[in-house]
Write a structure and sequence with these properties.
The chain is mainly alpha-helical and about 270 residues long. Helix content is about 70%, strand content about 0%. It has 16 helices and no strands. The chain has helices at about 1-15, 20-25, 30-45, 55-60, 60-70, 75-80, 90-95, 100-140, 150-155, 160-170, 175-185, 190-195, 205-210, 215-220, 235-245, 250-274. Helix 1 (about 1-15) packs across helix 3, helix 5 (about 60-70) packs parallel to helix 8 (about 100-140) and helix 8 (about 100-140) crosses helix 13 (about 205-210). The longest helix has about 45 residues, at about 100-140. It is extended and about 75 Å long. The model is unreliable at about 145-160 and about 225-230 (pLDDT under 50). Keywords: Coiled coil. InterPro entries: Cro/C1-type_HTH, Lambda_DNA-bd_dom_sf. This is HTH cro/C1-type domain-containing protein.
Length: about 270
């Protein structure tokens, strides 16, 4: 299909204007709409960035490639290399029906729109915060003989320990670095740098994190708010990965997983009592 799409592109470029549709319909027996989709798929998946992943994507089948055409190239490369798109791995995409994939992608688009709306709604509040920080910085500078610091420097000085607390919140929510980063609109490496305090998150990232359930008051100050329970904390990365996997189990099989885990826990408790 991709090779045919490439040839359709050449055909369209070399035939007189207006004759392309007649040729594909009358001589090739293709609906013009299908021919255009084939050409678009070829442009997308035979691009320099995605061509090396051609074999991987071709195994998904034509209909799923059509659904993935509108996704970002970087996201598709990440998917082929073991990452996720719309929270789905390549194996999950392969097992899904076309209808399920379409619904998952549309749901992800809807979530992105809601996130963008949230960013817009919070913009005024962020501007007010910046003004407050600038005012506080001016007060500190006026009462000190040291070199004055600007607002950005003052913000940076208050972020000590943010990385560790951000990681703690991610683990509390049971999300891996990769999934958490994707849902906050950054790469996994960026998330790693945030947690190591080698970089500091920006406002857009923090808004997305709050939408996931992160206790921003705790992240920024070390004091928990009523939004999150300190008891709801997983212990390590391994436990977070197990919880993340469980959250991605389809509803009809989740009960089976619960019974299996419960039986294993009861068996261990019985051995301990013995």
């Amino acid at each position: 299909m991709l090779e045919a799409g490439k040839r359709l592109i050449i055909l369209k470029e070399n035939e007189p204007y207006g004759e392309f549709e007649a040729i594909v319909q009358n001589q090739l027996g293709l609906e013009p709409r299908i021919a255009r989709k084939m050409a678009q798929a070829a442009i997308k998946f035979l691009s320099p960035q995605l061509e090396n992943q051609r074999k991987t994507f071709s195994e998904l089948g034509r209909s799923k490639l059509y659904e993935l055409m509108l996704e970002d190239d970087d996201d598709l490369v990440a998917l082929a290399e073991g990452g996720t798109i719309a929270g789905l791995t390549l194996d999950e995409v392969d097992r899904m029906s076309v209808r399920e994939l379409k619904a998952a992608l549309r749901k992800d688009e809807a979530a992105l729109k809601r996130s963008q709306q949230l960013v817009a709604e919070k913009e005024k509040q962020l501007q007010q915060l910046i003004q407050q920080l600038a005012g506080k910085t001016s007060s500190v500078a006026a009462s000190s003989e040291q070199t004055p610091v600007d607002a950005q420097q003052w913000v940076t000085l208050t972020l000590e320990g943010v990385g560790d607390r951000l990681k703690s919140e991610r683990l509390r929510l049971g999300l891996s670095q990769e999934i958490f980063a994707e849902r906050c609109g950054v790469k996994k490496l960026t998330q790693y740098n945030y947690e190591k305090s080698e970089r500091h998150p920006d406002a857009g990232y923090l808004i997305a994190a709050k939408a996931l359930g992160v206790d921003l008051n705790y992240v920024m100050t070390g004091e928990r708010s009523d939004e999150a329970s300190a008891l709801d904390v997983v212990r390590d990365e391994e436990e977070a990965e197990v919880l993340t996997a469980f959250r991605h189990i389809p509803g009809e099989t989740r009960e089976v997983a619960k019974r299996t885990l419960t039986a294993m826990a009861e068996k261990k408790a019985a051995r301990h009592r013995a």
